[in-house]
Amino acid sequence: MEEETNYGRLSNRKLCFMVFLMFFAVPAVKAVWPMPQMISSSADRYPLNPRMFVFQYSNGSSAQSGCSVLDSAFKRYFPLIFTGYMRAEGPRQHDDRIRFPLTDALFSVVVHVKEADCEGYPDADSSESYQLSVSSGLAALKASTVWGALRGLESFSQLVYQDDFGQYFVNKTEIDDFPRFKFRGLLLDTSRHYLPLPAILKTLDAMSYNKFNVFHWHIVDDPSFPYQSITFPDLSSKGAFHPYTHVYTQTDVSRVISHARLRGIRVLPEIDSPGHTQSWGKGQPGLLTPCYKGPAPSGTYGPVNPAKSSSYQFMSRLLKEVSSVFPDSYIHLGGDEVDFTCWKSNPEVQGFMQKMGFGTDYTKLESYYMENIVNITKKLNKTSIVWQDVFDYHEQIPVDTVLHIWKGSPTQIQQELSSITLAGYRVILAAPWYINHITIGQDWTIYYSIQPLNFTGTEQQKKLVIGGEVCMWGEYVDATNLSPRLWPRASAAAERLWSDERSTSSVTDAFPRITDFRCTLLRRGVQAEPLYVGHCREEYGGI
Amino acid sequence: MEEETNYGRLSNRKLCFMVFLMFFAVPAVKAVWPMPQMISSSADRYPLNPRMFVFQYSNGSSAQSGCSVLDSAFKRYFPLIFTGYMRAEGPRQHDDRIRFPLTDALFSVVVHVKEADCEGYPDADSSESYQLSVSSGLAALKASTVWGALRGLESFSQLVYQDDFGQYFVNKTEIDDFPRFKFRGLLLDTSRHYLPLPAILKTLDAMSYNKFNVFHWHIVDDPSFPYQSITFPDLSSKGAFHPYTHVYTQTDVSRVISHARLRGIRVLPEIDSPGHTQSWGKGQPGLLTPCYKGPAPSGTYGPVNPAKSSSYQFMSRLLKEVSSVFPDSYIHLGGDEVDFTCWKSNPEVQGFMQKMGFGTDYTKLESYYMENIVNITKKLNKTSIVWQDVFDYHEQIPVDTVLHIWKGSPTQIQQELSSITLAGYRVILAAPWYINHITIGQDWTIYYSIQPLNFTGTEQQKKLVIGGEVCMWGEYVDATNLSPRLWPRASAAAERLWSDERSTSSVTDAFPRITDFRCTLLRRGVQAEPLYVGHCREEYGGI
């Protein structure tokens, strides 16, 4: 890559090799991304006629017509399966009959679901497994939950392709599929930059194409507080970048939650404290710790003031609202990067340290604060997720708390995985997938090559790694560059988290498949950037 | 940046400092980017009423109504000056009269141009200087050419701002402005990825907001040949990614040229040879050198075959077409990165080397080839621009040839600048602005801090540096990520190339101005990515 990084141009040799690979980008048999656990397909292909194509519920299925999740999925997937069809000529065009003669046989996608949870929300234990059997005239899709059925519909939609004459085909295929990890998250940061609602909804769409199932909403932080709280409206009216144009109303939030639900995606809210709370101070005077310069307040503020009982009362009222607004049974409580300088400078905090017998160990103070917040959350019948810092300080926290690894060198990350799981805590791995860190070149291969379970530990410990998360921090990202930075780079992590590592270990094998999948994303209107030199049959049109 | 590059999150201290800076992002007096050579503005401001605002030609102006360049500029700049006005309510809305009473005084932008070149094209010597004087009810804009008037209109449009109630204002201002460098280029690469026409046209729009004046169209290269040639239609029908969807027809090309002309932008075509021509071979058998493996051809091809007279006949016919299609008096002939391996392997080329007495020095062969191409171009009355490699090999090339520096360490670049200008050649500096090289963080500061004339040489030598160029190579860039990668990062180079280095040397002073300019770009529909944490009053809407 030397020449490349110096001149941004590649040697002909490397170029030819890669372009040679490109020609496999549109294979005879359409691949599925992320790779299913088991897939076998033959060269036998069946033509599909959009006008002779139906979704159906099988007789035995507990979900039947009226199932909101699947009915809307059918509506959504028809134009995704028959891309270009609606756009190019619309379903009722005259020449449509010539192109797709009614004499064609009917093709049915028959869905069978065991437990119909059509009005519920996906949760941490929801099964997403499914079986898909595509034969002449029939695609039989079986799943134990509607969430599994959604994953199967996504896989089916990726199996359909058009030949050069525009005819749709699907090959004879057998798929038996389930996710490797239960938690496959993507974090968006709406505090460093405000993301308009459409940007969030489009991200949820793309997440579902990648089989991500958790939207980690890092909704507030130091720079701004866009969440419009019912209990504390001043937090956004004074703490957001703008009280009207740069906030998420309750309506906005419920739109995000229901958009996500229909795609089998959980919405995990993060209320990060005691640090990362500068913006909170504007709407909630007295919450943050006044920093002192010698004997007098300096006028600046630090983390939430852990010495005041009012802080905990505020937090418990805020968390009570959040846990009623967000249906998920988990809440992310943050707890990262607490700067002790301001606490140390404050006489009230110093006095509290004495009173509590913490001496001068401020990690004890942070522990004390976080324990309180975690217990508040527990009383609200929610399970806590916290950044690894909370474990690193050895707080006494409930054993069902989930730790979130966000920092360290590869070796440090392995050690952290070992020690956290050894202590019996469940863990989510985010550190290797800080996707806001961009470089020129094919950095997707880095995200693809991560081995989440490659650390010293027993089988039992490995089971405690419940998944991973792609993090898109917002310092340099807003609606202008979110999509091309996310996709298809995050797709590499998506396959790592869903698929069997043994069958997806080769970057070279993955390259033509992810290149083809990126073209699929483009066709679906996702502004997914190119992986390397080449083209898609349909380039991005949204210019 | 350690913490940032490790964790993608910044310390509160740095965050606060930067956010503090942000508050200067919308100054009382609107700044102009790139910074004019001389600007003085007072706090006196005049309200502007869109319904009482006119563009006029002064009586003495040689350009009058009917001047295509300026008439269309007036039409273009009205909605740019009164952003939100057309969109929000349209010019004829009822409440418009209430908001903008007709009793308001008329405000006129009166344009005076010395030489009316209304139907011509901007060229290498076109003056772009202008004087702008904004006072009560009048903005007097004087320029010697229509191209200078365009620059003045852009500056005026940036002076206008809205207060929190939506009222438009402009402050009393005096500007005397001219570009530091005559050549301020931006390169797009349409071979590694095809860029749909709208992506190119939108880039030209954004270039004009940044006062760039040369669109360097690297139109063909190894991966694809999208230029649809009249003389050699097979080049694109066989060498493009797709013969219909991924080509530039003659109509497309003339649209680009006229769109650029109306914005005072030259279109400089690059026909890069003898290397970077793999895609040419498909449509022009016999042009490329067959590479040999021992005694037999290996089936692969190298650069254009310099031993065949047919190669030069082909090139002269192709260049003849190109020089008639593109009106600019310059043509870029490439000449970079020629790999000698294939030439060395080919018996015919070996024989030619003997015949010419080049011994085994293949740089002599490349020199011979490039001299021929440059002379062909000279006969077509065009001036050649070539990449620095051509100079490095000491070819005998006409002294009016322009050298284009694209590689090397800062020190190497300084030496190259010294030696090229010492030899009396004019030079364009591109190497420091390879903007396809992305990193996390504020890399715009790197592009901003370049000092193009910081090399050892006489005043006469420095004068030979005619400008610089931002290069967006296409390995990892297409329509999905072009705009956010270009803007506002290229804007940093734009100011360096237009403005006085002494008054624009501080990155800290530039930060709030470029942050504000980036919001201006957003308002104008340019998908310009954020520079750092913060927000714009109007976020990007094109989601």
From TrEMBL, chains A, B:
Gene3D superfamilies: Chitobiase/beta-hexosaminidase domain 2-like, Glycosidases. Disulfide bonds join 67-118, 291-342, 519-536. Residues 32-159 form the Beta-hexosaminidase eukaryotic type N-terminal domain. This is Beta-hexosaminidase. It is an enzyme of class 3 (hydrolase). Pfam families: Glyco_hydro_20, Glycohydro_20b2. GO terms for molecular function: beta-N-acetylhexosaminidase activity. Hydrolyzes the non-reducing end N-acetyl-D-hexosamine and/or sulfated N-acetyl-D-hexosamine of glycoconjugates, such as the oligosaccharide moieties from proteins and neutral glycolipids, or from certain mucopolysaccharides. The isozyme S is as active as the isozyme A on the anionic bis-sulfated glycans, the chondroitin-6-sulfate trisaccharide (C6S-3), and the dermatan sulfate pentasaccharide, and the sulfated glycosphingolipid SM2. The isozyme B does not hydrolyze each of these substrates, however hydrolyzes efficiently neutral oligosaccharide. It comes from Umbra pygmaea (Eastern mudminnow). It is found in: Lysosome. Residues 181-500 form the Glycoside hydrolase family 20 catalytic domain. Residues 1-31 form the signal peptide. Belongs to the glycosyl hydrolase 20 family. Its main location: other. The keyword Glycoprotein applies. There are 3 beta-hexosaminidase isozymes: isozyme A (hexosaminidase A) is a heterodimer composed of one subunit alpha and one subunit beta (chain A and B); isozyme B (hexosaminidase B) is a homodimer of two beta subunits (two chains A and B); isozyme S (hexosaminidase S) is a homodimer of two alpha subunits. The composition of the dimer (isozyme A versus isozyme S) has a significant effect on the substrate specificity of the alpha subunit active site. Keywords: Disulfide bond, Glycoprotein, Glycosidase, Hydrolase, Lipid metabolism, Lysosome, Signal, Zymogen.
